[in-house]
UniProtKB/TrEMBL annotation:
Residues 103-169, 207-312 form the Alpha-D-phosphohexomutase alpha/beta/alpha domain. One of its GO terms (cellular component) is cell-substrate junction. It comes from Nyctibius bracteatus (Rufous potoo). Keywords: Membrane, Phosphoprotein, Transmembrane, Transmembrane helix. The gene is Pgm5. InterPro entries: A-D-PHexomutase_a/b/a-I, A-D-PHexomutase_a/b/a-I/II/III, A-D-PHexomutase_a/b/a-II, Alpha-D-phosphohexomutase_SF, PGM. Belongs to the phosphohexose mutase family. This is PGM5 protein. Pfam families: PGM_PMM_I (PF02878), PGM_PMM_II (PF02879). It comes from the Eukaryota. Gene3D superfamilies: Alpha-D-Glucose-1,6-Bisphosphate, subunit A, domain 3 (3.40.120.10). PANTHER family: PHOSPHOGLUCOMUTASE-LIKE PROTEIN 5, PHOSPHOHEXOMUTASE FAMILY MEMBER. One of its GO terms (molecular function) is phosphoglucomutase activity.
Length: 355
């Protein structure tokens, strides 16, 4: 039986003057603003997609995820409708693909990993980052480019210029994607010769395989389970990292299940900012101060920031943890095989790496 093509609508809109991306191609605003300003989210996503260079658009793949904290306020379906624009108006009749983590969830490092592995044109992440989420919190959209890194200033400026002149966007109100079902889903859309393709992938698998190629999992597993095992405590802060912590540290590397806390992703992150620092990661800090655990860590909501604590709650800043890695490169198989071209650090920094 022949399926009826899904209708495609062109929506007239008015541009906004305040959609300049900051912080690596991201736009973060109060959730209430997205709710109250007509077409605010579709406008920005449309501007973002239109910024992709014409030579990179043909037949390309885009990666997408939703970092909770925004999920009930803005179902990822709304974003999917807008993404159809790429395949209808930019790609014409060429086949395109949208890759999404199961249940809409992917950490920022996982999005970066998938972009590089499948040679995607980029990735879009719906996230409140380390800010409070939910209706009373914040909502944001981040863009990663083809190298898996955040959008550079030149791309952010292009998005902003487009956003100031935008007059319309295309949307498919009746498109429904089953985000829970792994595998490919295809949709016949109005005025399109080839199906619109959405592929749902396991949220952890590809990233876990990357980690296996970088680190010595057998040695780490022995450290966590052997006769001289170290006890660890990892706080996912009710963000996207919960599934990664449980799957990688507990299931794969053998850490006891109670080593991981706050691993259920929540819309509002449990009412606390998912910011891994001494102010907000108090549950982890108190546990580490007791001296029972030898290593502790906390992650922010989308998994690209962390805090490390040593025994008795000793705070290890990011510059020192980088210096420790640099001083022990022989323990990391990836660097033994590939070598090292240099070290990168961000502010605030220290002289530890220099020493």
């Amino acid at each position: 039986m022949e399926r009826t093509p899904i209708p495609v609508l062109t929506v007239q809109t008015a541009p906004y003057e305040d959609q300049r991306p900051t912080g690596g191609g991201g736009l973060r605003r109060p959730t209430a603003l997205f709710e109250s300003q007509r077409n605010y989210l579709p406008n920005f996503v449309q501007s973002l997609l239109s910024s992709v260079d014409l030579r990179d658009r043909q037949g390309c793949t885009m990666v997408s995820s939703s970092i909770l904290g925004v999920y009930n306020f803005c179902p990822i379906h709304v974003y999917l409708y807008v993404c159809v624009y790429v395949y209808l108006l930019i790609f014409k009749s060429l086949i395109g693909r949208l890759v999404i983590g199961q249940n809409g969830i992917l950490s920022t490092p996982a999005v970066s990993c998938i972009i590089r592995k499948i040679k995607a044109a980029g990735g879009i992440i719906l996230t409140a980052s380390h800010s409070p989420g939910g209706p009373g919190g914040e909502f944001g959209v981040k863009f990663e480019v083809a190298n898996g890194g955040p959008a550079p200033d030149i791309v952010s400026d292009k998005i902003y210029q487009i956003s100031k002149t935008l007059e319309e966007y295309t949307i498919c109100p009746d498109l429904r994607v089953d985000l829970s079902r792994l595998g490919r889903q295809e949709f016949d859309l109005e005025n399109k010769f080839k199906p619109f393709r959405v592929e749902i992938v396991d949220s952890v698998d590809i990233y876990l395989n990357l980690l296996r190629s970088i680190f010595d999992f057998n040695t780490i597993r022995n450290l966590l389970t052997g006769p001289n095992q170290i006890k660890i405590r990892i706080d996912a802060m009710n963000g996207v990292m919960g599934p990664y912590v449980r799957r990688i540290l507990c299931d794969e590397l053998g850490a006891p299940a109670n080593s991981a806390i706050n691993c259920i992703p929540l819309e509002d992150f449990g009412g606390q900012p998912p910011d891994p620092n001494l102010t907000y990661a108090t549950a982890l800090l108190e546990a580490m101060r007791g001296g029972e655990y030898g290593f502790g860590a906390a992650f922010d909501a989308d998994g690209d920031r962390y805090m490390i604590l040593g025994q008795n709650g000793f705070f290890v800043n990011a510059s020192d943890s980088l210096a420790i890695i640099a001083a022990n490169l022989s323990c990391i198989p990836y660097f033994c095989q590939m070598g090292v071209r240099g070290f990168g650090r961000s502010m605030p920094t220290s002289t530890a790496l220099d020493k």
